[in-house]
Amino acid sequence: MPHDHVRLRKALVATARSMNGLGINQGASGNVSVRAGKGFLITPSALPYDQTRPQDTVLMGMDGKPRDKRKPSSEWRFHRDIYAVRPEAGAIVHTHATHATSLACLHKGIPRFHYMVAMAGGDDIRCAPYATYGTQELSDHALEALRDRKACLLANHGMIAFGSDLESALALAVEVESLARQYWQALQVGKPKLLTKAQMAEVLEKFSDYRAG
After folding, report:
1. Sheet hosting strand 39-42, strand order edge to edge
2. N or C: which end of the chain has fewer CB within 10 A?
3. pTM score, two decimals?
4. Where are the alpha helices (DSSP H) in the chain?
């Protein structure tokens, strides 16, 4: 096993365990992956994270075939497809976070109600149409919802967030759930007043300058 893969496997398990501790996932739901060489490592299928060891993670080729003995997460397809079309994606987090999933069950995305929505790369966070988990159809819907974005909701399912590495992917997932909670709570009082596209464009430009600096 390549030495770097040992490090990545440990970091992958730590990230998966962090999801539940941070309150953005429950039980054994959700999954996490990270690029590894010409493929990616992903959490295994149906194994609670507190029981998952680094050697239980599964190395996948871009051909969709596992290089390890364990069965990969059933959602490996959208992980592979995101890596294939988004070269900037170094790690992906998929969770069933409560508020993000609540909005997804209403087939609602997160509009430009708060400037931090720009953290996901655009002026909204889209909700992909429903498709059965683990299918190519779901992956296709997710890729479209992620067009020019780094996060999306999945109807009647959960959310996806990606970043350049595990730390940034997890941080974005936490931010998306925070935004979902704020938007959900605002909807209980009334209809949130949205920022204009021009205001969001200014924020996106400032975020770009901030990252560049």
Report:
1. 58-60, 39-42, 31-36, 91-95, 158-163, 151-154, 127-128
2. C
3. 0.95
4. 3-21, 76-85, 98-105, 136-145, 166-189, 197-212
Unique residue bearing structure tokens 């994270």: 49
pLDDT tens per residue across span 29-81:
999 999 999 999 999 998 999 999 999 999 999 999 999 989 999 999 999 99
**Could you tell me the residue ranges of all domains in the chain?**
3-212
Task: Look up residue 119 and give its DSSP letter.
Answer: G
Average pLDDT over residues 184-210: 94
Task: List the structure tokens of 17.
Answer: 């365990």
Structure tokens at 98: 């409560």
Bridge partners, residue 31, by sequence: 94
Instruction: Based on the residue annotation, tell me whether 75 is a catalytic residue of this protein.
Output: yes
Q: Is the dihedral of CA 19, 21, 24, 25 positive or negative?
A: positive
181: left (phi over 0), alpha (psi -120 to 50) or beta: alpha
What CA–CA distance (Å, rounded) separates 28 from 43? 10
Cα–Cα nearest to 203, from 126, 121, 88, 109: 121
Query: Residue 67 and residue 137: Cα distance in Å, rounded?
Result: 24
Specify whether domain 3-212 bears CATH 3.40.1160.10: no
* Token code pair at residue 43: 């959490």
**Euclidean distance between CA atoms 99 and 182, whole angstroms:** 9
pLDDT tens-digit map of 3-40: 568 999 999 999 999 999 999 998 889 999 999 999 99
